[in-house]
Amino acid sequence: MVTKFKIGEKIKDKRKKLNLTQNDVTCAFMTRNMLSLIEKNKAMPSLETLIYLSEKLDLPIGYILSDKNDIFSFEKEKKICYNQTGSRRDRHAPAPT
Fold first, then answer.
1. pLDDT 10s digits, 7-65
2. Please, which pLDDT band fits residue 67 given cuts at 50, 70 and 90?
3. Rounded (10°) angle between helices 4-17 and 32-39
4. Among 39, 58, 61, 34, which Cα is nearest to 50's?
5. Sign of CA dihedral 5, 10, 11, 12
6. Mean of the pLDDT values across residues 67-75?
7. C-alpha angle with apex 17: 35 to 44, nearest 5 degrees?
8. Could you tell me which residues come within 8 angstroms of residue 68 by beta carbon, excluding any fewer than 6 positions away?
9. By the 8 A CB rule, do 28 and 35 touch?
10. Which helix (H) or strand (E) holds 57?
11. Cα 8 to Cα 44: distance, rounded to the nearest angstrom
12. Separation CA 84–CA 28 (nearest Å)
């Protein structure tokens, strides 16, 4: 079971690694105070807030919610998409010409 502690810790660690202030992250979406409470594990973010923070900090939601502290296992998972011909390709691979 994931705890508030791990969620807040993961969000704060990633924000600091990106050299972002709380104000940089919050913008018009949420207050700096709310982010502070989340990072201090005094508030649990809503699903909408988790999605926002995941996108803003480039963190997989699965990583934020998991008990694992190994982000690399989430980054290694390949995201498959389909091109117009229906064949699979890696999301990060260049599109065929």
1. 999 999 999 999 999 999 998 889 999 999 999 999 999 999 999 999 999 998 888 88
2. confident
3. 120
4. 61
5. positive
6. 62
7. 25
8. 74
9. no
10. helix 47-57
11. 8
12. 37
